[in-house]
Amino acid sequence: MDITTTESLPGRRITAVKGVAVGSTVRTKNIGKDIGAGLKSLVGGELKSYSAMLVEARSEALSRMEAQATELGADAAVNLRFMTSAVASGASEILAYATAVTTEPV
Predict the structure, then answer these.
(1) Closest CA to 19 of 54, 90, 71
(2) pLDDT digits (tens, 9 = 90+) for 23-64
(3) What is the domain class of 2-105 according to CATH?
(4) Among the four residues 47, 67, 86, 90, which has the most C-beta atoms within 10 Å?
(5) What are the residue boundaries of the structural domains of the chain, listed by start?
């Protein structure tokens, strides 16, 4: 499946809009990461364990969004966006959403 942040795909024409495809995951920190982050905040710098957690969360949200687009009968997803929100103390949601479409060669 082609997935893009743009509203069109080069060399393809959108033939139908199937709907909005959404995928999300909620992740929480663990005590080990919290302790490490607390110590790191004293000296500054990147919190690599949190960065890795967010990379994994974005990948999971994107995979779930792609699966929903496929269920809708799409062969592509355009206007991909990500959103993050806090849903509870220490827990964040990563949301991926896009317009699921069918396409054909131009």
Answers:
(1) 71
(2) 999 988 765 555 555 555 556 677 777 788 889 999 999 999
(3) alpha beta
(4) 47
(5) 2-105
What pLDDT does residue 87 have?
85
pTM for the complete prediction? 0.83
Q: Which residues contact 93 (CB under 8 A, 6 or more apart)?
A: 24, 25, 26, 84, 85, 86, 87
Query: For strand 76-88 and strand 2-3, is the pairing parallel, antiparallel, or unpaired?
Result: parallel
Provide the pLDDT for residue 50.
Answer: 79
- Cα–Cα–Cα angle for 34, 37, 43, rounded to 5 degrees: 155
Structure tokens at 91: 């827990």
